[in-house]
Each structure stands twice: as structure tokens, then as C-alpha cells.
Amino acid sequence: MFHRYRVASALLAVAVVIVGVVLMVAACGGTAVGGSSSGTTEQAAATIPQAHPQAIEPSAGSQAPAVTPSDPVGDPHAHAMPISEVRHLLALERVAVSRTNATYIDPLQYVNHWERTDQGVDANMPVGAPILAPGPVKILAVIPDWYAGQPLVYYELLNGPRAGWIQYVAEEITDIAKPGLYLQPGQVIARYAASGTGIEFGWSTANGVTLARATSGYEEGQVTPAGADMRNWLNSLGANAGPS
Hints:
- The protein is α+β, with helices and mostly antiparallel strands.
- It has two domains: about 1-45; about 85-235, Glucose Permease (Domain IIA) (Distorted Sandwich).
- The chain is built from five helices and ten strands; from the N terminus they run αααββββββββββαα.
């Protein structure tokens, strides 16, 4: 009996030592290289917009996945607008324009992290940073629940070599200009939202389908000619968006 008591006491002592070692290792794990704490590191990281490029373009009528209440404009449980309705909205607002020799300005002057080329160009910006009208534009339509409860805005270029072309910017945007508005170069189309999946900036057809899908079929992650053209167009305006 006494022998069993001594064994039990010894085992208890060993257990106490093991627990102490685990706690000490855990405490050490809370310190980053260079002596800064993980809390400080997390706070610093929180100030840097994280890269979350678009993963999937939803099919018309598909249901968006759940997102947190802090995510941007849109109901995460809503259905994407049917493409037929998008086509109708674009047709209502488009205007007839002619190409000119007018120049454009860089609409993404505040990007701090360029991402991949796919259907368009993916990028991140500081929260609240504006996406600018590259020239005179008309806002054609806003789709509030395009992807994961996040919106998309279509607008038409009204002059320059690409007059009549439709651009879109989607996902992590808010404070979007209303359909029907005419904006001048440098005026704000939308602003980068506080959370979401980054932005995608690309070309659209008049039917509301991305130019990438309309011309290449597009498979997830594919570098498309339409996406490469958008990046080259941005670079021609001084965006320094890197190679396609």
C-alpha cells in the first residue's frame, strides 16, 4: 500500500513537471523573432491589406457562400442577379459614343498590392482608397450580390481610344456611384471596403459577361487575353502593375 502511494506520488510529481515545461514552451512561443510579441505582430499585420484575389465568378442565380457581418455591401444569402437582368440594365444606360484621341488617367492609383491576372486584374488597396474614373464615364449598373455578398459596378468609357468599352470593378468595394451618373476623370467610382476578397478590375461585354469568359471560356486561375490586356492598359497609364 505504501509502495503504491510512493509510486503515485512520483507520477504526480512527473506530471507537474511536464505541465510546467508545456506552459513555459507556450509562453516562449508567444514571442516573435527579435523579441517582439505575437500581439504586436498581429497588430502590425492588421494594418496591411491582405491579398485575397477573386476565386470564382458566380453563375447567374447561384447562392453566395456565408460571410461575416463586417463584410462589404450585399446580402450573403441573396441570389446573384440573372444575367438577362444585367443585360437589360446595361442596355438601358449605355450611350452611343465615338472614339477620340483623348487620354485616360490611372484609375487604380492607390493600389498597394497587385495580384494575379485572370479574368481581369486582382489588387488590394488601403481601406477607403478611391477607384477613379479613368476618363468621362457613365455608371451603367450596380450588382449588389455578385460574389460572396459583395458588389460589382459596370461603367462605360465615353471618350478616348476605347470609347464605348465597358469596364467593371468588383468585390471589396463600397460607396459606389449610382447608375445613370456621369463622372469626370478622377471622380470616385467606388472605394475600397474594410473587408472582403480584394478587387477585380476588368473588361465586360455589353451582355454583362466578362470579356474573358466571352472570348476564352475561362477556367479558374487562367491568365486570359482580356486580363492581360487590362493589365497592359493599366501599365500604359503608369499603374506599374507588373507583367501579365
